């Protein structure tokens, strides 16, 4: 556990806008096609994230931004995690966080705005067969194409592309917490909004198998804390990935801090 304890691991700063079960937001309705649901979640969480990125990228009067090459010379999430970008030759290169996130936003928006990858034609919208009201024969008849989103006209690479987008979104959230939680989010009283969007994102990404346990490591302590304090209910995927005992210990540290 990092010392001194980051402010975002203090129980007073790990709260949310509202109390409730975020699982209801991340659970796919039974009649919604899985591909449609994943695509919807990608767009929603991308938009949520960029509301926060705008805050650290806005130019001050002197032309600088909160996140800049001097404050964040590399895309990092604490001392033990940093991320590289693949250049045109597919070689990993270290970039300042500002540049990394700018390139990533351009890449993500290019994917989301590509009608070949994210079709917008309403005629292609599919639906999931409700298992309780559909005969086995009809389900078998509909089972010819089995990749994510096939019924709604999504290409075969939808799943892998969405997984990459979720992974990149996580990296940005991790950077925001480790490098920018106090300034600007805590000072602007935006920490509850950040926590709410991030916990919703973690629930969604893990429920949809878009993030694996090893990828969560930079934010594992916060996941542990939220499992311990009830943000992630016992039946949720993040709870299964959490060290609840460690989360309770972090709770005690934050309470006594």
From TrEMBL:
SMART domains: Mob1_phocein. PANTHER family: MPS ONE BINDER KINASE ACTIVATOR-LIKE MOB. Coiled coil: none annotated. Zn(2+) binds at residues 67, 72, 175, 180. The keyword Zinc applies. Keywords: Metal-binding, Zinc. It comes from the Eukaryota. This is Predicted protein. InterPro entries: MOB_kinase_act_fam (IPR005301), MOB_kinase_act_sf (IPR036703). It comes from Hypocrea jecorina (strain QM6a) (Trichoderma reesei).
